[in-house]
Records
---
Amino acid sequence: MSFLRERFGYVPDLHFFASGKRKVRAVVKEGADERADLKGVYVGKKAPYGFIISVEGSFLVGRGAKKGIIELNDEEFDRWMSGQDLELREDLPKGVYIVKYQEVFAGSGYFNGRVLKNLLPRVRIQ
Amino acid sequence: MIPEGIIKPEFERRYRELMGPEYELFLKFMATKPRPTIRVNPMKVDPGWLLDRLEGEGWELKQVPWYEHGYWVSGVERPGGTRWHALGLYYVQEAASMIPPVALDLEPGLRVLDLAAAPGSKTTQMSEMMGWRGLIYANDVSPDRVDALAANVQRMGSVNVLIFMSDGRRAVQTFGRERFDRVLLDAPCSSIGEVRRSWGALARWSPKAVNRISRLQLSLALAAYETLKRGGVMVYSTCTLEPKENEWVVHQLVERGALIERPEIKGLKWRPGLKRWMDWEFHEDVQKTVRVYPQDNDTIGFYVAKLRKP
Ligand SMILES: C[S@@+](CC[C@H](N)C(=O)[O-])C[C@H]1O[C@@H](n2cnc3c(N)ncnc32)[C@H](O)[C@@H]1O
């Protein structure tokens, strides 16, 4: 998971493995060699513009991340959780960012130079 | 009130015997909805932070005495419809259903089997109690319910869970003999304890149905027990109050050498398992098993037995 190290400066101490062509999941290391119908949680998937981090991935990676995080204020978080894209207050390089609000993480977004594209799946939108 | 005609005469006869003078009180509780309860996920959020937020949004919270992260909630219409829920910061789970994991003496690093796991209330609770360490093998036979299990494991972030779809009666073939430190069998049942949520279980109830499901429970329990290591703990639980589905099943495990232990459940009012029912006389230790009546703690009805393999 050299990508995580490069992008966020942190790789959680878990076993990462491919699930299908583009998705990546993670399970505790003891589970690495176990056979099961499904193991651990989905952490993210490859997209043309980078590696999208799932909500659970954002908790696992975000906690130790040294960079690649965007912190939202109350109003931005409201809009984010209702599925909207956000204009940002700061100038940032393009790329995928983990979204953080106070104590919690809320998936990731792609900053295209103009807005932070909301990548939350529909089931997480309230 | 429970509408006329839903309670069958045989049901009334049996539950009058079971409840004695409390029968009317029992019915009164059965006719009301249980209090909504949430279980905070301490692996995803600092519980204090979330509780402050929820109270700020007008929720009233009252701690469940037997599980430190359980809270009865009021002042909110749909506890499952918030952003905090969508982010996996808590799980909506009836307070009595938090008891079996507490009885299981969990610690981080153990290997645990949850043989009838879907939709994963107890799987995800156990995962959190183990600090996302060790391994939980969560199994269920129903494809739709396994989907729900997978969705909940994902939402709660339970990275130490492995999911299996198989018939639990074949647990030895699927998982191997004496393989687990802990085994939970939260068995399919006649769901009389769940009547507070929906009266369907009352309409479906019959002595024949109870006997049929009791046979399934026994097969599952025997298979579950086979997968337990020596010295390991198994919890058998149901959300019903039927002796044939509870004490009778546990008695069969005792006959095969299982030892019964009295679980320590803080602040829970409960009744001892029955000594006898109809023609059966149960092993004396069966009285160490836990009957939770709806009127005891204002929860759904539950049964919990803690067993150890010598
Ligand atoms: C009481 S529910 C389990 C609830 C779950 N433990 C929880 O806390 O969310 C009983 C489960 O047993 C499953 N079941 C029924 N027959 C089974 C079998 N033969 N093998 C495995 N699971 C079975 C049902 O699909 C159902 O999901």
Note: Helices of chain A lie at 2-8, 55-62, 74-81.
---
Amino acid sequence: MLISVEVNGEVVTWDVDPRETLIDAIRERARLTGAHVGCRSASCGACTLSLDGLTVKSCCLLAAEADGRTIRTVEDGRTPPEVDDIQEAFIAAQGMQCGYCTPGMVMSVRHLLAQNPDPSDDEIRRGLAGNLCRCTGYVNILKAVRAVRDARLGR
Amino acid sequence: MTYVGASIPGRNNRRSAAGAATYVDDIRPDGCLVMAVVRSPHAHARIRSVDTSAGHDLDGVALVLTGEELRDAGIAIHPSGTNVNFTPRTAVRHVLAVDKVRYVGEPVAAVVARDYVTARAAAQAVLVAYETLPALGDARAALKPGAVLVEESWPDNVMVDYPIARGDADAVLAATPPSGRTSGTLVCNRVAATPLEGRGIIADYNPYDETMTCWASTQAPHVLRALLSAALSFPEGNLRVIQPQVGGAFGGKIPMFPEDVITAYASRRLGRPVKWIEQRDEYLSAGGHSRDMRCDYEVAFEPDGRITALKAGLLADVGAQSTFLGWLMAIVSAACMPGSYVVDHVSIRLRAVVSNRGPWQAYRGYGKEVAAFFMERILDDVARAAGLGRDAVRTRNFISPSHFPFVQPSGWVTDSGDYQGTLEAVQELIGWDDFPARQAAARADGRYLGIGIGHELTPEGSSRPDALLNGTDSATVKMTPRGDVTVLTGVTSPGSGNETGIAQIVAECLGADLDRVRVLQGDTQSAPHGNGNYSSRSLTFGGSSARLAALVIREKLEIVAGRMLNADRADLEVTGHRIRSRASGQSVTFDEVAAEIYRKPHGRHMAGIDPALEATRAFKIDNVYHRKDEDGRYNQYPTWSFSTGACIVEVTPETGDVRIEKFALVHDCGVVVNPLLAEAQLHGAIMQGIGASLYEEIVYDDDAIPQTPTLREYTLPGIRESVDIVLGHRSTPSPFTFMGMKGVGESGISAPGPAIASAIDDALADFGVRMTTMPFTPARVWAAIQTARSAGRGE
Ligand code: FES
Ligand code: FES
């Protein structure tokens, strides 16, 4: 079936299989491989994307459901090797090891800070509760998020 | 410039954060097909027939493979390797089941199709007729007389029976009065490493030159190449294995897996690239588990807490052992007891038993975490029975620093340590002495706080005899004509950051500028042979071999620079990519010396010098004994890191919920090359240790049917479960490695289990609760409290 979606600011038309998930369409058709697959059961958050401004686990959406909607990915149309301040903070704080969860984490942090520029530790924890990381024990991820929050607030 | 000891963020961080890292599923060779595996829904059944026609007929399906086809093609995994001290029963393995299936998730057939949805649909259309057999739900069922046999050529289900003895534990126990004895049963849960990225491989056979290139999410490309070559009878030299970025491994990607062989076979048959990417439900049933061990113990002790005898029966449920070598973890558990403690009379008997649970696969800790859980719980039991402090009992029994190297009853040789040092340091960090007052105040408020400790021993650098995972590795260091340095290593990084640490070591040893040192790993076509990543050895072995190679290059640079500067080598100072004569103050850059060597090989400074600026060296570690010596020493672990963990928990008796308020760990891994990365490793290991203690358990029912098929049942800790981790460092350098490095990576995974158990016991002391079965889920803690209440204890 034909669908039309806006991906990182560009409108594209895809002929998708009705069984195809959104994560597979983004990875295979748009060739945006920053979002990963870790479970296909909405448990890990590696596939987190922004759909009409809300973070979604794209493994549990069908590509067809994205018809007519707006998607943003971790790449977000940036020119390599440009990254945003959240990603810079993850880099400096060693907020990652294998990096598999990182793009999904970054998407959730972008959303969290857009909603709440000054989250407490508890609020950060709630905001990232849908993203699993098996490597870091979350210690340096928390450090990274606090660092961007403080930098944005000029603290 | 000192790079060793500097906290430098990982070199791959930027591409990872950008979402630009390339994992195996991000690679798409032209014309690549996708493979899906048909798996057994039964724990134990005979295969009556496999009807592939409906799968074949689907549009877009290229190939359907069955066990029979692979068997007829001569594809099988034959047992290999030698073992000292015990003889395991073995069997030839089929990568796709033939005749019968032994566990839920075992590969039975495979489908190759144009894309993922087609492959999955075709896999569902393959019809397998089974005749179910009685299934063995666990090791105890497998041991019952008359139990059905998992391996029909064996007389029973026991794979390994391994006794370890020193002195006469039975006699000492018999001679000790009841007040000086205690006994109990401990159970360690079955868990799975669960890296966020599953396993996966792409095989690309080229029929023209008969070569095959594989990209695999693996920890050891060279080892995978050798094993694949043997399994497929494919020339090793025609096989290239590339490790792209790996999304975590933790032992779970040490090769080789059945799917690797099936994928490579399919590609060779089709002459096209074939990709297999593991799905999470496949991983949780068939990717390999660990732990799953119980311990029935009896100890004798003196009134001062000194343990005089230890008798332990260990029963490991290794599942339906497969192509995996995970069952060896059971050996490590047994051989690491009593571990950190001196016990004169020891009798341990390990039985590793096959059942219809899934096979074992290596996981961070590799059996040492089980040994630590058992020993530390036993020490707590002795403290309770003797009426002594938990710390005092440890102090009383620790191997003292002057007793190293210390030979364990298993014959393994513990190299060095200062266990009392980490214990005291962690008590300081957690606030051990002030805690009782706090605890009493909280108790008066109706809150249940507890404090606990757990000591762990983490032998590293596993060096098995007659195996490709042994105590060596190699590295090449080379310099380009313009003075840039490339390091190629046989070790790999699944996200641990050793590429960064090795660059630091090479820059330091060579006197190079760190920014001009590039480290390349994970391609059998360019890297020298190596064993990859396991047993926390990548820096100790990879770093040490890179250092040896760097010193060769440095020597040549110094000789030529000395001639260029008219100076003696002893007069030269090498730092920051520059060689300087102290006497004259004149200097040349590495770039200039490299240009001299490459561009003027016949010039006056090059007389008698071989112009290669490239060296490969292999590091072979000491303190490994592969034949038993006259003292019974047989040692596969050259260096022994250790840590002591401590934690404070709060338990809610109404729900059984356990919350960790603070976790402290003081570790000793010798000299630390990169504190930022070493601490990051420790954070991750501790969190995995906490996960296995409170949240994670692979559960089977009595018929060996898995009850935890997705991450919704196998619950990994999320950020809401993350705890405040405080780290302390101490350093007793290893006498056997460069600068005394000992390896980090596994350290920290073992201490949480016993420390948390100890803290829960302490919090619930009123109830006399003793946590003996991991994980300490709310249901288990609550049940223990109810049992105590109905016995009239507590409140
Ligand atoms: S892959 Fe979507 S939540 Fe895990
Ligand atoms: S960095 Fe590996 S899963 Fe988060």
Note: Chain B has three domains: 13-133+199-246+253-286, 290-464+631-790, 472-620.
